[in-house]
Design brief:
Elements: H1 10-22, H2 28-41, E1 53-62, H3 68-78, E2 83-91, E3 95-104, H4 106-117, E4 122-131, H5 132-140
Antiparallel strand pairs: 1-3, 1-4, 2-3
Length: 141
């Protein structure tokens, strides 16, 4: 097996080690391998290519110590044809939550999610995606 070096903040490494211990993993490598497989498979499992998609992306960041808010605005403008709605809320004393509603093809949706997840100082970036035709079929039944 190839050995890979990964840089991450100390706090994230500590959480990773705690997670491995609490859930019976043999070590952090096993956790990272599983997480990588899950991440790579997220958009593949439902065969989403060529289908119209709708999605929701929820992002949380600390507004006192980051430039994440500026980056959210930049990405939103870059994907203005994909982002159909955006809500910004303050959560607690120091946090912001961005909610993005998306419509588009897999390429645009996955690129948007990737840029959000790659943004420095994002504490959480969760999303869900559903093909529009699956949703429409449920309504028509």
């Amino acid at each position: 097996m190839t050995v890979v070096s990964v840089s991450m903040p100390e706090a994230l490494l500590e959480r990773l080690d705690e997670f491995a211990d609490e859930h019976g993993y043999t070590g952090r490598s096993e956790v990272v391998r599983e997480a990588s497989r899950d991440l790579l498979g997220e958009f593949e499992e439902r065969k989403l290519e060529g289908r119209d998609l709708m999605g929701v992306v929820t992002v949380v960041f600390d507004h006192d110590t980051s430039s994440a808010e500026e980056r959210m605005i930049e990405v939103r403008h870059e994907y203005e044809d994909t982002v159909v709605s955006n809500v910004h809320n303050h959560v607690g004393d120091h946090y912001c939550m961005e909610l993005f509603v998306l419509e588009g093809q897999l390429e645009e949706v996955s690129a948007f999610v990737g840029k959000i997840r790659a943004t420095t100082d994002v504490l959480s970036a969760d999303y869900s995606v559903i093909p529009v035709d699956d949703f429409a079929a449920g309504i028509e039944e």
